[in-house]
Amino acid sequence: MTSYIEDISSLIVGTVESVAPNEFRVLLDSDAPQTTALNATVPRGFPRLNGYVLIPNEIGAIVAVVTWIGIERSHFPKISTHKDFGLVDLPFPVRRMVVSPLGTLRHEIQQDNPNRLIHKLSRGVSIFPSVGDKVLLPTIDQLRSIIEGGGEANGVKIGTSSSVADAKVSVDPDKIFGRHLAVLGNTGSGKSCTVAGLIHWTLEQAQKARNKQQRQGPVNARFIVLDPNGEYRTAFQNQGARVYCVSGEIEEADAIGAKPLQVPAWLWNAQEWTAFTGAKPGVQRPLLLQALRELKAGAVAESSNEVSIRRLLTFFHQKLLAIIETPSQYVEFPGVRNTGQLLENIAQTCTDYALQMELEVGEKLQNIASLTAEVVRRRKDRGGYFSSFVRSELEILSGEFNSLMSMFGAVETLSTTVDANSPIQFDTDSLPDYLEELSRNESSSNSGYVQNLSMRIRTLLSDTKLRSIISPNTDLQLNGLNHTWAPAME
């Protein structure tokens, strides 16, 4: 009967020659196995690529995987107790290998059997080896602990390892689905089957755990599979999976037994709209968010002509009051130019709306248009440049606006519970026109920035393939119910 020390010494195959953070170089002993190791419980191939070796340390052993094997020329190993003066010192072949650290195999005493050690694999290396440390072959129990990951209780079995006595290969769903994961392999090696199996096996394991806890209902899990080649169309029929056709066409989807993919644009939030349109910060993005908020709040789609005019005139009046309170806005450049452009917009807008309103309101609008046009005529030279405005003439215009607003009555305000992220249905085709209208009301200098954005939106909305997805003719239904939204009660 051999002792524990003798068992360990029989597993030694080499010595560490150099240490780096990502790899260790190992000099194999002359009596180390050539092709098959017979001293590690069961016969197995050694040395081989992707094989495992152990380097003992204070807390257990470092687990390393073989990444390179080769023969190099070296001096003949000298033995201090033996000298052969007739030996010619020629290059002597020695075997070396390079191993990469994988983790640490910790040894713990089993609670119900203190005479037995159990092994648990943990990621990372806390104590690196030193030059001269011995390299060992792992036993079959240690190999099982490495392959099985220390016996994960919640692991999902995905296969067995034929090289380690059919050791169970399992993965923890919380770990693999909580990180980035890639399934790699050659063509025809079973990558698609492995992906489908991971999903199936995970759902089955989760359902077993749920039944064990006596919890009712299906597993609360969601998987989104992007399948450009149609490999998974029938893979999850027993799981009640919903299959969508990306083209969005009902006829094409019915032909393959799927549903047309529909993601209406009105359902998007502000971040998705910004990414879809490519709106730049500064001018485009704030105006886009304002347009979305007002369209979703019903500022255009379901408002009467009188309400729309009233809101626009209120906007003009607030801008005019802000300019009056800031002298630099009507005395210095570029405020003078912006004020002149605002007055030109006011004159043109009041002239257009005067023909659409009742007689008394129309006359008031025409009067404001005439006064504003006269102020612009006095301050604008032949070159199109504005001179400084006078506070009194701006206050006269503000007074006329006050008189006009009193004729309209109280001004409706947009709902404060609606913003650009609210999932409220609106006419997406009206978005480009409304954006241009907002830019003209703000400042004519912004029109150039917004025209590019509105043109981009029109192009995207008119695309045939995109339109069937983002602007479907049918109403979107979620779980059999029409998707509605209501603001939270305060």
UniProtKB/TrEMBL annotation:
Pfam families tied to this protein: DUF87
UniProt keyword Nucleotide-binding present: yes
A single MF term (Gene Ontology): ATP binding
Occurrences of domain Helicase HerA central (ranges): 157-334
Top-level taxon of the source organism: Bacteria
Cross-referenced InterPro entries: HerA-like, HerA_central, P-loop_NTPase
Keywords: ATP-binding, Nucleotide-binding
Official protein name in the record: ATP-binding protein
Lineage of source species: Bacteria, Bacillati, Bacillota, Bacilli, Bacillales
